[in-house]
Every structure is written in C-alpha cells, then in structure tokens.
Design brief:
- By secondary structure, this protein is mostly helical.
- 68% of the residues lie in helices and 2% in strands.
- The protein is built from 13 helices and two strands; from the N terminus they run H-H-H-H-H-H-H-H-H-H-E-E-H-H-H.
- It has a two-stranded antiparallel sheet with strand order 1-2.
- It is globular, with a radius of gyration of 21 Å.
- The relative contact order is 0.11.
- The chain binds benzoyl coenzyme A.
- The site of benzoyl coenzyme A has 28 residues, from helix 2, helix 6 and helix 9.
C-alpha cells in the first residue's frame, strides 16, 4: 500500500473518533509530534516541582506543608506517567531526559518565574493548575490512547490542586490587610505568565493545524485561553481580587471577557531560555540528575540480580 493511501486510512480512523494505540500504524510525523509534545509536557511536570518545592520548608502550618508535599509529589507522578506514555512511541526516557538536560527540549514557560512569597503557592495552585486543567481536559480526549488515559488521572489530581490553591487564595483574600496585599501582588505577577502557558496566538502557532487535524488537540490555543479567562476572572471577583488588566471588559453579546494584549516579546524571551529563572531551573535539574545517579545504578543492579535469579530458577 502506498504512503498516501496509508495516511488516508489513518486520517479516516481519526475522523471516526478511533483511538490510536502504540502498536497501530501511524504516520511518522504523528509519532514525532506526539513525542515532542508529550516529552515537553513531562519535563514541565518535573521542572514544575521546583517553584513550589522551594516553599515546602517554609509552609505556614503543618496542614499546609502536608498538602504542598503531596501536591509536589503528584507532579513527579505526572512526569513519570508522561515519560512512560512517551516511551510507548519508541522514545526512551533517557533520550528525552537528555534532551532536557542538554537544553534542547522545551518545558512550559510558566516555571521560569520566581516564587517570591507563600501567596505564590496559593496562586500557582489556583491559576497554573487551573490553566493546566483546561488544557488537559481537552487532551484527555486526544487521539493517542496512552496520552489520553494519562490525562484522565492527571486531571483528577490537578482538580484537587486547583481547589486547594483557590481555598488558600480565598483565605488570604479574606485575611489581614498584609495577607490581602500579598495575594493581590501574587495575582499581579502570575496572571500574564499564566495566559502565556496556552502558547502563541493561533496565527503564530505552527503546530496547531496538524495537531487538530490528527485529533491530538481539539481546541486552539486562543480558544483555551479564552475559556481560562472567562472562568478565572469570575473566580477572582468572587473573592474580591483584581485582575491586572486595564483592558478587561465583559462583552454582553458574546458573553466573554475581552482582555488586553499579551507581551509576546516576554513570552518568546522566556521560551528561548532568557526568562528570570531559566538558568536556575536547568541548573537545579542537572544537579538533581547527577545526585540521583546512585539510585539509577542501584535500580539497574537490582534488575540484573533479579534476572539472574529468575534464570537460575527456570
Ligand atoms: N512554554 O505551535 P505551538 C502543570 C512552544 S505542567 C514553552 O502553539 P503546540 C504543572 C511550542 O512547544 C503542564 N514553549 O505549539 C506542573 C512550539 O515549539 P516547538 C504543562 C511553548 O504544541 C507543576 C512553539 O512554542 N502543560 O500543569 O501546538 C506544577 C509554537 O507553539 C509554550 C503542557 O505541557 C509555553 N507555554 O501548543 C503545577 C500541555 N507554548 O516544540 C502545574 C501540553 C508554546 O515546535 N502541551 N510553546 O519547538 C500543549 O498543550 C501544547 O504543546 C502547547 C503548545 C499548548 C503548550
């Protein structure tokens, strides 16, 4: 069968809403696009542990510390499911992790901003996990089975993360004048970077068309960003917080919140590695990788011994 016919058959399966599984035939470009996106997603979960992890030792109470510890652990778990899901496409975990450590792979821009106060932990849970849920609920319907299934579980956990974040935001917004000031300052710093998480405008998004054609994405970057704004402006107002956007207006006709222009120069600067924390994050990841070498060696040695004893027994 010619390539054109094979691609058409694949497209028919996608158009019929079928799920693609690891051993199914797929165009090489579909495989490469998924490896790119899923490995970037896995890296984002792992690098994403750093900004919040920074506050575990300084949590204001034991309850908050326990919640934050388990949230950060959940993010590690998400990274692991996603590396495993990426392996089903033939890209080894070692290979994709090396790409990150060598600075060749991207991860979400949002994790290149600093966490300056405890309020940032609350706002990350509310806004960053809130954005992740909107994006990942769509990806839970993605055409690639292992990615979609990983997303179902991840979204359940992200949903808990968002709730704990919003509860903290509401507590601080209802607290002392200092707490109110801290939480508003944090929203002011995280609002715009969170909008950037959804990626460039649709006109500047080279991957969207292909990903939508293949059912990996079912909504565009701008559509998801709009859903995020509509939901979170409302939530901010409910707890008495301001959104730092003088152009924000509610359009009665469309029933959407219209918002100001994103600073795309800042976005691309961060994506290219020049954000406030890019170098710091990569240094921390490389150090953690080096320090973890003994764990990988021990796991390999254990697997070798297990195999030897199984061979002896058979
Ligand atoms: N940051 O054509 P486009 C979490 C890149 S972690 C950096 O629109 P696409 C959490 C893009 O990669 C959840 N780079 O791309 C964890 C592309 O470059 P390449 C993170 C970005 O794929 C811990 C170029 O720009 N979520 O929730 O159609 C604690 C052009 O973009 C970004 C995911 O990873 C960005 N923000 O759409 C708390 C979701 N945006 O690769 C929370 C999975 C764009 O061609 N990924 N770029 O060199 C996606 O949904 C999509 O890949 C994106 C981009 C929406 C990110």
């Amino acid at each position: 069968m010619g390539e054109e016919k094979r691609n058409q058959q694949f497209q028919n399966r996608i158009d019929n809403g079928e799920t693609i599984e690891p051993k199914d035939a797929m165009p090489d470009r579909y495989r490469q696009q998924l490896i790119r996106m899923m490995s970037q997603h896995a890296h984002s979960e792992i690098v994403g542990m750093l900004p919040e992890g920074n506050w575990i030792t300084r949590a204001p109470s034991l309850r908050r510390k326990m919640i934050l510890l388990s949230k950060v652990q959940d993010e590690a778990g998400h990274g692991l499911y996603l590396y495993s899901a990426t392996e089903t496409l033939g890209a080894s975990r070692q290979e994709v992790i090396n790409q990150l450590l060598e600075g060749k792979a991207k991860y979400s821009s949002i994790f290149n901003y600093p966490t300056l106060s405890w309020a940032d932990v609350a706002v990350i849970g509310w806004l960053v996990d809130g954005a992740a849920i909107i994006n990942q609920t769509m990806l839970a319907r993605s055409s690639y089975g292992p990615y979609a299934r990983a997303m179902v579980r991840i979204c359940k956990e992200e949903s808990f993360h968002k709730k704990q974040g919003y509860e903290m935001v509401a507590t601080m917004a209802d607290g002392t004048p200092e707490q109110q000031e801290m939480i508003q300052d944090s929203v002011n710093r995280w609002w715009w970077p969170t909008l950037m998480m959804f990626g460039p405008h649709d006109d500047d998004s080279p991957n969207s068309e292909e990903l939508i054609k293949w059912g990996v994405k079912s909504k565009t970057n701008d559509e998801l960003r709009q859903s995020f704004v509509d939901r979170h402006v409302q939530e901010a107002h409910t707890v008495g917080l301001e959104i730092p956007d003088p152009d924000l207006t509610f359009n009665e006709e469309t029933e959407h919140w219209e918002f100001g222009e994103i600073n795309w120069e800042e976005f691309w600067n961060v994506v290219k590695g020049n954000g406030p924390m890019n170098r710091h994050r990569m240094k921390a990841r490389r150090e953690a990788h080096t320090k973890g070498q003994w764990v990988r060696d021990a796991a390999k040695e254990y697997a070798r011994k297990q195999q030897l004893s199984e061979e002896k027994a058979s």
